[in-house]
Design goal:
The chain is an alpha+beta fold and about 375 residues long. The chain contains 14 helices and eight strands. A five-stranded antiparallel sheet has the order 1-2-3-4-5. Strands 7-6-8 form a three-stranded antiparallel sheet. The longest helix has about 35 residues. The two termini are about 35 Å apart. The C terminus is likely disordered.
């Protein structure tokens, strides 16, 4: 991700990646996020705080203004919870009251420009993270007056979270992404449920077609579409059970066909990459490639150039050094996917799609 973009744009891009990952891998955590805040709501919060909220934090809250958590656990990197705006105002008010009670002697307990945005849990605000509005740095606070800088900026924090989710084998720090009862939990966790926590290693689920008539038909082989059309036209659309049975049967077939095609593509890629890395694919295989790698089979130099973070390049070099030739195809594709994800955050298009979809779902309830 480029670091010369405005801070609010970097936050928008990183959070778009995170939203897409949550929607795909951990639906309960995705569902726990609240809708974005309006400009009027952030203005009211600024009035309550008596301080200006930095643009990068406003950008985050426009997309997701807090979370409700899953089983008492938050989803943010470091096992924090994204605070709702009312909790932000409450914590800031309490901390400022303590600051006023301490007088002017000694270091500041809290300053007006310190805006909390993460807490220990959805219902536990004794510690958390705040954004220093003067410096742009992210600090950790505790009830014991501890104030330690954790990240250079809010964009840096969210970008690290996005990369840790999208490329979990390169995740830095002690917290690794994983799933517990379908929700995102950074771990390994201690105590109850620790034995059920499963670390996420980046295995992408098959890209199944949507359960719509058009998407199912497009995924079927050409010689099966006439049979699909005939049975669809004879379907009684007023019978919900008949419609559901029809969709189940043909969606299952579409998934089966798509997975077979992916296996054939993977087989073809192995041969092409091992023979001449970087050569072009035959058109039928090029069209079937996932969008993230649809330009050509990568070479080692392609990947090394695309990896913009030195720590990630070092991990790639380590993996490459320890690989043996039969493993090169999988190594190449996995690292090229990581490089593409890091270089292309998918931007405003993804934000609009995810956020409008969530708003529409909430309004229809």
């Amino acid at each position: 991700m480029t670091t010369d973009a405005p801070a609010d744009a970097r936050v928008t891009r990183a959070w778009a990646q995170i939203l897409e990952w949550l929607a795909e891998y951990t639906p309960p955590s995705y569902a726990s996020l609240r809708a974005g805040a309006s400009d009027d709501e952030t203005a009211a919060l600024e009035a309550a705080l008596g301080a200006e909220v930095p643009d990068e934090l406003k950008a985050l809250w426009r997309l997701s203004a807090g979370e409700d958590g899953v089983n008492g656990s938050g989803l943010m990197l470091g096992d924090w919870a994204l605070m709702p705006l009312d909790a932000v105002a409450d914590v800031h008010r309490r901390q400022m009251e303590i600051e006023k009670g301490l007088g002017e002697d000694g270091p500041a307990f809290w300053e007006p420009s310190w805006i909390p945005f993460c807490s220990c849990g959805p219902d536990d605000t004794v510690s958390g993270l705040y954004l220093d509005g003067r410096t742009g740095e992210v600090h950790r606070w505790t009830r014991y007056e501890e104030r330690e800088r954790e990240y250079t900026s809010l964009p840096a924090y969210l970008e690290l979270m996005a990369i840790s989710l999208e490329a979990p084998l390169t995740a830095a720090g002690p917290e690794k992404p994983g799933m517990l009862n379908g929700a995102l939990v950074w771990g390994p966790p201690d105590g109850e449920g620790a034995d059920q926590w499963v670390r996420h290693l980046g295995q992408a689920p098959p890209r199944h077609p949507a359960r719509t008539l058009g998407a199912i038909r497009d995924a079927l082989p050409g010689d099966e579409r006439d049979a699909f059309d005939a049975r669809r036209d004879a379907l009684d659309l007023t019978d919900p059970e008949a419609v559901a049975g029809f969709l189940d049967r043909w969606w299952g077939r579409a998934v089966e066909v798509q997975e077979e095609l992916e296996d054939e593509v993977a087989s073809a890629l192995r041969g092409n990459i091992m023979a001449r890395p970087g050569r072009g694919l035959a058109p039928e295989y090029e069209a079937a490639l996932p969008p993230a790698i649809r330009h050509r089979p990568p070479s080692f130099d392609d990947i090394r150039t695309a990896l913009r973070h030195e720590s990630v390049r070092a991990r790639f070099g380590h993996d490459l050094l320890n690989a043996i030739p039969p493993h090169f195809p999988a190594l190449l594709l996995r690292w090229w996917d990581i490089a593409r994800l890091m270089a292309d955050p998918r931007g405003d298009r993804a934000v609009r799609a995810v956020v409008s979809g969530r708003h529409g779902a909430r309004q229809s309830r």
